[in-house]
From TrEMBL:
One of its GO terms (cellular component) is membrane. It holds the Pfam family DoxX_2. The lineage of its organism: Bacteria, Bacillati, Actinomycetota, Actinomycetes, Kitasatosporales. It is found in: Membrane. This is DoxX family protein. Signal peptide: none annotated. The keyword Membrane applies. InterPro entries: DoxX. Keywords: Membrane, Transmembrane, Transmembrane helix. It is a multi-pass membrane protein. The keyword Transmembrane applies. The chain crosses the membrane at residues 6-26, 47-67, 73-92, 99-120.
Amino acid sequence: MDLALWISAWVLAVVALVGGVSKTFVAKEKLAGVHGGGWTEGVGERSVKVLGVLELLAAAGLVLPALLDRVPVLVPVTAACWVLLMIGAMVTHGRRREFGFVVLNLAYLALAAFIAWGRFGPESFTG
């Protein structure tokens, strides 16, 4: 199970890194033009950048605390926060009737919930 949790954390960290880099460093107008980027239409540039920075922090928080053995409880805390972020993403895409993205966000949410459950519980770094 430990291996499954590590793989899940790395997969989610890569997803967060890619999303965070694009939202932080790509112009909002360019994001709006890509498939799935229409959600940026009603959102300010600063809000898009803040979401990007949160995703970059999530990418780091999902793996670095455990790798560096520094406050590893941040891994499941980050995963729990990712669950909340995905709920927001699902609501946003649902309102736009982008149900494919709702399902994708639900998959990311499930992965994050698995990490949070596993690292708070049976495969805790403190145990």
